[in-house]
Amino acid sequence: MHVAVTGAAGMIGRKLTDRLVADGHLGGVGLDGLSLFDVVEPATPEGWTGVLDRAVLDLAGPGAGDAVVARRPEVILHLAAVVSGEAEADFDKGYRVNLDGTRHLLEAIRRAHLADGYLPRLVFTSSIAVYGAPLPDPIPDEFPATPRTSYGTQKAIDELLLADFTRRGFVDGIGIRLPTICIRPGKPNAAASGFFSSILREPLVGQEAVLPVPESVRHWHASPRSAVGFLIRAATIDSALIGPDRTLSMPGVSATVGEQIEALRRVAGDSAVALIRREPDETIMRMVSGWAPGLAATRARALGFTAETSFDEIIRVHLEDELGH
Amino acid sequence: MHVAVTGAAGMIGRKLTDRLVADGHLGGVGLDGLSLFDVVEPATPEGWTGVLDRAVLDLAGPGAGDAVVARRPEVILHLAAVVSGEAEADFDKGYRVNLDGTRHLLEAIRRAHLADGYLPRLVFTSSIAVYGAPLPDPIPDEFPATPRTSYGTQKAIDELLLADFTRRGFVDGIGIRLPTICIRPGKPNAAASGFFSSILREPLVGQEAVLPVPESVRHWHASPRSAVGFLIRAATIDSALIGPDRTLSMPGVSATVGEQIEALRRVAGDSAVALIRREPDETIMRMVSGWAPGLAATRARALGFTAETSFDEIIRVHLEDELGH
């Protein structure tokens, strides 16, 4: 089996590729080829001995979609995106990458389908940003997408395209709405949600972190390891189980910032918690006030998608996967 | 005030233009200019003495959006679209006109806004086709858009774009989800919903009509006169009343085909009803089975959008407006 990954150089993309290489198969089918695409050159996965394409690719550029499908990968994991903060700050770039990039990929798959019957599984990473205030807690699966950001708008549009291209038989598409991924390793990215990770990640290694919102803020989280698990599950699940609404809200942990901090205290003590500095930020508070407090994720749970069940577990995953505990 | 209309040569476009010319104002502001656009040349409105631009324009073509905003119309009524049957039959054309055409128009408005602060009211005609089975009856305003056709997908995407461009302050957009317009005058178009009109229109002038679905089929209707009323209301309503969800489901009449036929019998007698020939069509039945039976339209009614309240009234409007009764 040949698998293509867009956004392969990103945090989730690298973890996903490592998992694929470590497993050596996808859904029980041996993996013999990998195509890795990103706007920066993806690294060669350690220990990989099969066919490998690595390419620097702007998905919104001419011919990019055709490059992704050139080897007719049976599975395409489409992670490439401009994150929420950047899509809000750079209107054109957000639409170009998050809408045009995904549409060009869908169109390239359709052209290949019309040419030779190609019909890959396409896993699209959507986001809980498709939901906009006022929101119930938890948000049921049938809640409408009413995004209040350009990023959420672009993801909601992609979900609609994915469903229509799948309904028309051009692709076998499944979308997954990722929770906020916590704890993100490494440096903060341009996502406005960055503090959810940094208030844990930095204190765990003895560094200060800034908390821009009140402790009462409730949000929806899953670990990077869970995100990779969602992608693998979506890549291998029986398509017929999904039905016409092709995008599923993923499970996660609903927690307040205060609950995050108490989990940190249990794991790393008062001295770690003392490293969190309160610096209220009106802009971030206003953005976060419209975010999802929690999701029912009923369909996804019934279909075997699993995540952590507590913030202690999310921190433990970080200690194991990033800090070698 | 200058008003632009896309799709001006279509059935609703012509009725809308006639109404604007007859009124001589829009929301109490005198009308001195009209720009009419369509893929076929729009007619000169009878009795119009103000500034008039008429242009043959493919909205998805290069520069088309800029042409629409060239005179900086205070109001743009965007009706141009490929209808449902055609969008399903010609995938590329549907996306090109219904998605790219609308997006290009929004982008042109944004460019003008960034250049000189231009901020028009844009009225976008959406459709109940954004709703897909399984559907409650009536469909509440907060029901999610889960289209089951390419046409419905394109309209749902346009609604998302309209909301985001409005939220960002580039345009003052309001979308209206039109019911199936009944009784359409003239010849059938490529819409799969055509029979809802023809089973009344043809018998009213002594001609045969074909009914492809059972009498139990329930659907959501408003007259062409009501559609024009919706557009005028959307063009003039206080924008602040709408909130962040910029598209409203329009009121109408929920009726079964059997109830339509009984209304015809009351108006035109048994001899008219006898002209309806049953010719079951599996394809149309399958399509129609997923259509909206009725909408609550609570927000729109509260905001002063009004439609007929019975099918007898819908037939009476047709007799008055089309047959000179």
What are the main properties of this structure?
homodimer, 325 residues, alpha/beta, Rossmann fold, seven-stranded parallel β-sheet, three-stranded mixed β-sheet, 11 helices, 14 strands
Structural summary, described in words:
The structure is a homodimer of 325-residue chains. Chain A is of the alpha/beta class. Chain A has a domain at 2-179 and 223-251 and 295-307: Rossmann fold, CATH 3.40.50.720. Chain A is 41% helix and 18% strand. Chain A is built from 11 helices and 14 strands. Chain A has a 7-stranded parallel β-sheet with strand order 5-4-1-6-7-8-12, sandwiched between helices. In chain A, a hairpin with a 2-residue loop joins β2 (25-26) and β3 (29-30). In chain A, α1 crosses α7, α4 runs parallel beside α5 and α6 runs parallel beside α8 (257-273). The mean pLDDT of chain A is 96. The A-B interface holds A 91, 132, 142-148, 150, 153, 156-157, 160-161, 163-164, 167-168, 244-245 and B 91, 132, 142-148, 150, 153, 156-157, 160-161, 163-164, 167-168, 244-245.
- List SSEs of chain A in N-to-C order: EHEEEEHEHHEHEEHEEHEEHEHHH
Net shape of chain A = globular
- What integer is the average pLDDT of chain A? 96
Give the count of helical stretches of chain A: 11
The biggest beta sheet of chain A is recorded as: 7 strands, parallel
Strand arrangement across the biggest beta sheet of chain A: 5-4-1-6-7-8-12
Question: Low-confidence spans of chain A: pLDDT under 50, at least 5 residues?
Answer: none
**Secondary structure: number of strands of chain A:** 14
* CATH architectural label of the domain at 2-179 and 223-251 and 295-307 in chain A: 3-Layer(aba) Sandwich
CATH domain class name of the domain at 2-179 and 223-251 and 295-307 in chain A? Alpha Beta
Provide the helix percentage of chain A.
40-55%
Rounded to an integer in angstroms, the radius of gyration calculated over CA atoms of chain A is: 19 Å
How far is it from the N-terminal to the C-terminal residue of chain A, by CA? 34 Å
**Portion in beta strands of chain A:** 15-25%
CATH superfamily of the domain at 2-179 and 223-251 and 295-307 in chain A: NAD(P)-binding Rossmann-like Domain
